[in-house]
Every structure is written in C-alpha cells, then in structure tokens.
Design goal:
Blueprint: E1 4-7, E2 12-15, H1 18-25, H2 28-39, H3 44-53, H4 58-63, H5 79-102, H6 109-126, H7 130-142, H8 146-149
Antiparallel strand pairs: 1-2
Helix pairs in contact: 3-5
Length: 175
C-alpha cells in the first residue's frame, strides 16, 4: 500500500499520486468543501452585505430546504434572521467604536514607538545605569498605548506585567 493523501477540506483520503491529487483538487466537491470552510470565517458584515443583495429563495421559503444548499445564488435567510444579523453587525460596529473611543485620544502607536526609541537611545548615550533602566521600564509599562493592550486572545507571555509587578512566592520550608 502506497502513500495516502488526506484532504482536510473534504475529510477524505486517497492514494497519493499526481493524477489522483490533481483530479481531487480540481473536483466540484473539493471546491464546495473549500468554499464552505473559508465561508465559516467570514465576518458578519460581509455575510449581511451578500445576503441583502440576494433575492429570497422561493423553494427554501416554501419547503424549508433547497437542493443547492449553501451554493444557492438566492438567500436562505428569513426576514427575522436578516434583522438579527443586521442588529449583530450594528452591535459589533458599536463595540469597535466604543473601544476606539476609550483609547487615549491623539496618541498613536507610531508616536509611542518613536518616543520609546528616543528614550532608549538617550539611555545608551548617558551610560547603562541599572536604576535608570528600571525606572524607565516601569514608566514605559504604564505608558503603553491602549491599542496594544486591547488585542484579543494574547498569550499570557505577551501580556504586560500587572501594575505592581509579578507576585513572587518565597518558599521558606526548604531552608
């Protein structure tokens, strides 16, 4: 038995050779599965825009099912679903605007980076004093723009330390 090729989009495997792979990758089922995969990551506003331009699918509205499924060129959304999607898009937009408003006005990441670079070069010229660096680092942490802190799902290793620094437990039992 030779090597097998597994297609993540289609969730199937087959004997791996140039002819079989080319036939599969150019097949209609693979293209549909690939489109469905990428469509699952589309944002709500793009979906709303597409659905508003489409006419309603009569077959889907009458029978509740359409032979074309997600590949249908007509909309399968009811008026209520379209309204809910529109409300969801507006809520997302409002949350984005609110988060932008909460950020420090008039300050950009570029300004912060240039100020930070100037401070570091000034420290390099004045000499490497340990206490100066510590005080500068403490000041920089509190001076970090909110845009950098509001990135969702940052791993803990990339989050800045808390205002009081990391709490360190000292184990006195080993003494």
């Amino acid at each position: 038995m030779g090597k097998r090729y597994y297609c993540d989009y289609c969730d199937r495997s087959f004997q791996d050779n140039m002819h079989n792979r080319k036939k599969h990758l150019n097949g209609v089922q693979h293209h549909r599965a690939k489109k469905a995969w990428y469509d699952s990551f589309r944002d709500s506003s793009a979906i709303l825009c597409d659905e508003q331009t489409k006419k309603p699918c009569r077959k889907f509205l009458q029978k509740g099912i359409c032979d074309f499924g997600p590949n249908c060129r007509f909309s399968h959304m009811s008026e209520e679903e379209l309204f809910n999607l529109k409300r969801h898009v507006e809520d997302e937009r409002q949350r984005r605007e609110d988060s932008v408003d909460r950020m420090m006005p008039g300050r950009s990441i570029e300004e912060w980076l240039s100020r930070r670079e100037k401070k570091r070069t000034a420290l390099g010229i004045e000499g490497d004093s340990k206490d100066k660096q510590d005080s500068e680092e403490g000041q920089e942490e509190s001076d970090i723009p909110q845009q950098l802190l509001s990135i969702p799902d940052l791993p803990p290793s990339l989050l800045p330390p808390p205002p009081g620094g990391w709490k360190v437990k000292v184990n006195t039992e080993w003494g």
